[in-house]
Amino acid sequence: ALNKRSTVEQIQNAIDVCIKCEVYPITTWMITPDDDVESVLRTIRFWRRNQIKCKPFFETPYVATPLFEKYKDKIIDYFLEDEEKRRIAELEREGKTEEVERIKDRALERYVERLGDATDLTINLNPNFDDLQMLGLQQAMFEQDERRIIKWREKRIRS
User: Is the pLDDT of residue 49 over 90?
Assistant: First the structure.
């Protein structure tokens, strides 16, 4: 999804080279729509092995990017108010597409107004976690609290 084309081995090699040259690498990491509990745990273990401390940010679709185009409909739906959704349904039945587009544009405007720091959750694109879980995972990753994530995963499996 990210088109980064980097493997774990390549990232590890880059970190090793930096450390060998006495350069401490400053890294950034993101929680993506493809992440699940296992990938989060692998990331924490990688960080711990490499003494990386960072607060992950959320993959955020910025306007005019391929990611934005991919998730545009989801963004609109996420930022539409319930009344607007009902109104759109009525307008679509009446064939009033221009008015529908105006309402959707207002939802996109609300989204753009919320864009800012990618460590803030503007929109959750991950189907594996709800908004609160994403925020909790972000904090647990920052704290490298593998135990808490495993405990949460086990509780989730039981229910």
Answer: yes
